[in-house]
Amino acid sequence: MNTIMSSLENPHVQNQERWPSPFWTMVGKEIADHLRSWRFIVLLVLIVLTYWGTTAVAMANLREVVSKAKDSDQLFLYLKLLTTTEGTLPPFHVFLNFLGPLLGIGLGFDAINSEQQNGTLTRVMAQPVYRDNLLLSKFTSSLLLVGVLLLSLTLLMIGGGMILTGVFIEVGEVLRIFGFALLCTVYVGFWLALAILLSILFRQPSTSALTAIGIWLFFTVFYRIVIELAVGAFAPDVKELSQSDAIRYNGMIMSLLRLAPSQLFTDATTTLLMPSVRSLGPVTMEQMAGAVPSPLSLKDSLMVVWPQVSGLVAATVLCFALGYYLFMRREVRS
Length: 334
Prior knowledge:
Structural class: mainly alpha
Protein name: ABC transporter permease
Transmembrane segments: 40-62, 143-169, 175-201, 213-235, 305-327
Organism: Echinicola soli
Low-confidence stretches: 1-8
GO cellular component, one term: plasma membrane
Largest sheet: none
Oligomer: single chain
Number of helices: 16
Strand content: under 5%
Pfam families: ABC2_membrane_2
């Protein structure tokens, strides 16, 4: 009764409760636009086909993997569904290392410049909405779509695995698989933030798309080659190095390789989905002395990959913050 009386006395409160905020209205409109676009449908079909193919291969080889397991308590059956392969088709997380950037770039390369090319940016800015709501709604809507897609595939994999194998999933496996889905969302979010930044920098959508794909190709294909050439040119011969110097040089090379987002994603997903991975760098015999040959707990795996996860999140925030700064200072009426 008090709520009704207050709404009658103050009609603005009633209107605020009835209508959603402009931000969520714009998010809903962006999600509807993505769902109706052929670009998103093609990318969705590619990811679903990849997921179906890799899961089918893992299911076909699951019996052989289970028969080779030494300890049934440390089998991690559902993690095997994401990592098992027979060699003809890479596992799902390796495919996502390639398709995830394409999904992020495809959703964000024309986020701002297409609005300006079509003349709709000035119309939107003429409405009583904050300017940053437009940029935030573009990023939030695409990230929500990616998160829902990966969460749906994860739940489908868990449900299908329980039906086909009849084995209940452990809590640790559930947390690792949901952590993997969250990590994939962050990885796609980085490429999405980068694509939106390029859509602010360049007025032509084709230019921003080609630039984003060029950056992706450089870090995926050419970056490792450049690092190896630089190391081969400037590093001393391995035969002349002592063990400590060789480990130090190897650590330096790994640090340079981890400037690439794809390397951070590979390290993080491998450690999360394979509890037997205990380290991501060279380990000496002294460090291995006394180590118990058992899988790591989820907490220990997260401690191993925490630098990689922090790096991906920091790169995503940096790209979005730079795009936010440039968009807020941009003249949208020209």
